[in-house]
């Protein structure tokens, strides 16, 4: 018989993992609401062109990592490798430009990238994504970064570092790229084959090459912040002033270029230790040309996405406890067939009264009480012949072992009193 396994790079999130996920997702949604973000859900798949144009042909995501296929109608479809391009498509398609700006939207859900799996890197991953549309002021960049800060503060993470850079704009970036290429041409024999290809296809990416041989060339490379136009330089300086005023620590990282083509001006990431080689827990930046590129009116935007798996890994790596979901507090145990029928009626009655309750399915009274204990019940209701004859139940406090008889008519009040 064939033994089925989950596809490489995917995870089964088992019940014992769920409290971590619940905690992270509750935290990101609470922060998003605190900052006035509204939720938007978009399809898990889009027309391939949305990503080819939005994220950019020539990026690793588009060239190597997309799950693309033709559907039965012959349409080119891609499972979303990120949210931003799809959210902008939805913004344009739904005429959201008429809404008061800035428009603040957040989403959560799975995205798909055919990457080489390793610790903290999956092919199906889950993102929290936030976008501010229609605001040019660096205050929007700041707010996006503050959301990331607040999420990780709320999750009580320690030792995070904010990496910040500017990537210029269509006015100044081409000039910088020429300087970068010129520098690389003089060191051509020293660089890896991938960087030789990147120089043609996606030159900024040479700056985040991890190969040993490329490191001296990267270290001596011209810095984009020295080449940006006045508009980009002012934007970057204003953002840094906001951050400095607030005392938020960040590192200017001239090598931070990010793997998506739509970025203009600000880019940032948050890095953490303890999640394998994949140190970015979130990343984002400004994309002032994206909406126009996808067919909308020129509209600025800035946003970020955080990987939920990496946040979960970090909670575990930093031994941060998460709240456990409460177990149903009441467990119903019984002895004999007649008592079982009473027990079932009682179960329905308690659920209608708004209590979490479970019923034993089988076993001796002793083993039923063991089940009650394992399932974290605070109260057990015991029903046997005597209880049926007296029209009541025996109510047992699972912690102290104390028992008392309670007439059925008083049961709801008695449970309520003991659960406060
Ligand atoms: P990204 O940097 O490609 O940005 O992904 C954001 C976050 O998703 C990463 O920092 C990481 O936590 C998580 N992530 C990415 N790939 C994987 C993977 N293979 N396995 C596990 N986690 C992963 C974006 O997606 C942009 N759309 C962010 C953005 C929004 N920029 C502007 N608005």
Task: Describe the model.
This protein is an alpha+beta fold and 420 residues long. The protein has two domains: 15-172 and 228-317, Bira Bifunctional Protein, Domain 2 (BirA Bifunctional Protein, domain 2, 2-Layer Sandwich); 330-414, Anticodon-binding domain (Rossmann fold), CATH 3.40.50. 38% of the residues lie in helices and 21% in strands. The protein is built from 15 helices and 16 strands. β15 and β16 form a beta hairpin. α1 (18-34) packs across α11 (308-317). The longest helix has 17 residues, at 18-34. The two termini are 53 Å apart. Histidyl-adenosine monophosphate is lined by residues 82-84, 113, 115, 120-122, 125, 127, 129, 131, 259-260, 280-285, 287, 303-307, 309-310.
Assembly state (oligomeric): single chain
Give the N-to-C terminal Cα separation: 53 Å
Characterize the overall form.
Answer: elongated
Query: What is the CATH topology assignment of the largest domain?
Result: BirA Bifunctional Protein, domain 2
What is the percentage of strand-forming residues?
Answer: 15-25%
What descriptors fit this protein?
38% helix; 2 domains; 5-stranded mixed beta sheet; Rossmann fold; BirA Bifunctional Protein, domain 2; 420 residues; binds histidyl-adenosine monophosphate
Secondary structure layout plus pairing:
Elements: H1 18-34, E1 38-39, E2 45-47, H2 48-56, H3 60-65, E3 68-70, E4 76-79, H4 84-93, E5 103-112, E6 124-133, H5 138-154, E7 160-166, H6 173-186, H7 193-201, H8 215-219, H9 230-246, E8 251-252, E9 264-272, E10 280-286, H10 290-293, E11 301-307, H11 308-317, E12 330-334, H12 337-352, E13 357-359, H13 365-374, E14 379-383, H14 385-390, E15 392-397, E16 403-407, H15 411-419
Parallel strand pairs: 1-5, 7-8, 12-13, 12-14
Antiparallel strand pairs: 2-4, 3-4, 5-6, 6-11, 7-9, 9-10, 10-11, 14-15, 15-16
Histidyl-adenosine monophosphate is lined by residues 82-84, 113, 115, 120-122, 125, 127, 129, 131, 259-260, 280-285, 287, 303-307, 309-310.
């Amino acid at each position: 018989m064939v033994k089925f396994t989950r596809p490489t790079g995917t995870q089964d999130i088992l019940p014992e993992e769920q409290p971590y996920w619940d905690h992270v997702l509750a935290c990101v949604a609470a922060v998003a609401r605190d900052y006035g973000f509204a939720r938007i859900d978009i399809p898990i798949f889009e027309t391939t062109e949305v990503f080819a144009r939005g994220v950019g042909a020539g990026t690793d995501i588009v060239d190597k990592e997309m799950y693309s296929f033709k559907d039965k109608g012959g349409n080119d479809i891609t499972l979303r490798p990120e949210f931003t391009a799809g959210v902008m498509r939805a913004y344009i398609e739904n005429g959201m430009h008429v809404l008061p700006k800035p428009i603040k939207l957040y989403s959560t859900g799975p995205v798909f990238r055919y990457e080489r799996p390793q610790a903290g890197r999956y092919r199906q991953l889950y993102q929290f994504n936030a976008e501010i549309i229609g605001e040019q002021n660096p205050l929007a960049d700041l707010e996006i970064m503050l959301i990331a800060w607040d999420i990780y503060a709320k999750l009580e993470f320690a030792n995070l570092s904010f990496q910040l850079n500017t990537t210029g704009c269509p006015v100044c970036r081409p000039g910088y790229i020429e300087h970068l290429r010129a520098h690389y041409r003089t060191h051509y024999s020293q660089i890896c084959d991938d960087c030789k290809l990147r120089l043609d296809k996606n030159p900024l990416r040479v700056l985040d090459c991890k190969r040993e041989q490329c490191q001296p060339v990267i270290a001596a490379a011209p810095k984009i912040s020295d080449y940006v136009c006045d508009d980009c330089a002012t934007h970057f300086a204003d953002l840094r002033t906001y951050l400095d005023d607030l005392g938020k620590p960040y590192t200017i990282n001239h090598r931070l270029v990010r793997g998506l083509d739509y970025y203009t001006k600000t880019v940032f990431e948050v890095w953490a230790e303890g999640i394998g080689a994949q140190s970015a827990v979130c990343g984002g930046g400004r994309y002032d040309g994206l909406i126009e590129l996808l067919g909308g009116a020129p509209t600025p935007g800035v946003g970020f996405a955080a990987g939920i798996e990496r946040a979960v890994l970090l909670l575990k790596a930093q031994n941060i406890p998460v709240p456990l979901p409460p177990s149903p507090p009441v467990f119903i145990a019984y002895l004999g067939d007649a008592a079982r029928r009473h027990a079932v009626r009682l179960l329905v009655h308690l659920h209608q009264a708004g209590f979490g309750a479970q019923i034993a399915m089988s076993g001796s009274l002793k083993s039923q009480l063991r089940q009650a204990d394992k399932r974290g019940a605070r109260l057990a209701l015991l029903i046997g012949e005597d209880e049926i004859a007296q029209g009541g139940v025996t109510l047992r406090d699972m912690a102290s072992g104390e028992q008392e008889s309670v007439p059925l008519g008083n049961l709801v009040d008695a449970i309520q009193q003991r659960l406060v």
